[in-house]
Amino acid sequence: MWKVEADGSNEYNNFQPGSLNTTYQLIKDLNNVDMVINIGDICYANGYISQWDQFTSKIEPIVSVVPYMIGSGNHERDWPGTGSFYGNKDSGGVCGVLAETIFYVPTENRAKFW
User: Which N-terminal residues, if any, form the signal peptide (predicted)?
Assistant: First the structure.
């Protein structure tokens, strides 16, 4: 849903310009949306906190109106030695901490998986 600068700045190779179209269309159609489920590879931040900031800013009109649930993908969680299936460095070292913190879900067991 998000890995592109709205004005094209600060991107050396824009692979996903269509993600803005998806985000903007969802914002326009919010009256017909009950919930959004983002199923992994949430913002492709790969360890860059500024990418999370841009992503949360862009989805603010959505998350302020409807429930927004996530599932962690390899770009949120994967790091060698963390129990990841692939053991690569896709998360940039954050190992799911940012996704878990930004999209906090209350639960009986708050044990940190990292």
Answer: none
